[in-house]
Amino acid sequence: MFKSIKTGVLAIILIGTAIIAKAQKVMDSGTITYGIEYLLTDEQKKQIDPSLLPSESKVEFNGNLSKIQVDMGAAMLKVINDGELSNSLVLVDIPIMQKQYAAKLSKEEVEQQRGGLTFSDFKATGEKQVIAGFNAEKYTYKDNNGVTYELWATTELKLPKGGNPPGFNALNATPIKYSNSQDGFKTMVTLKNVKEGKVGPFSLDIPKGYEQKTMAELKAMRGGQ
Prior knowledge:
alpha+beta, disordered N terminus
């Protein structure tokens, strides 16, 4: 009887492990699609029409590297990020002018682009909901200025550093709905879907034919925005 009970317990442990392993989807390479909601101030709304801004963003990731591509109409913007070293390469293609520009950003410059914010004090609230098919839990956290934020994260999806949003390394889960801030503009980013598959490889080397600029020079070309 003891042997039977022991065997039964072992079976339950193995089944439980199998369920956990099946529940957590681990990816090293693929594409993530996010929906974007713009949280503009009244002053920003006077300057920018939100309907002209992209409503979604696709992130391709492969290991520590990721690539974001945004169609700006007259120009195509590509940003390649290193999730391990926290540096970036920005590529701008302007077909109508037959111009291609590139800017390399150091870790310090990337942090400056993100407003110099760092996040900590992640706390689960116990509130839960399903987002894009994943069971997610609500967390609160703070930045280095003491401002409190909220996000939703899941333990059912595990991504490499290239696939994870920057700033959330201390969170023991994958953020799938969170606020983002860059150059003074705030957005709410929500996972729509994630697809596993081979993408890349990506590189932080400037491609042939691109004219190297600083990020400040690129901003000046688009009116400093």
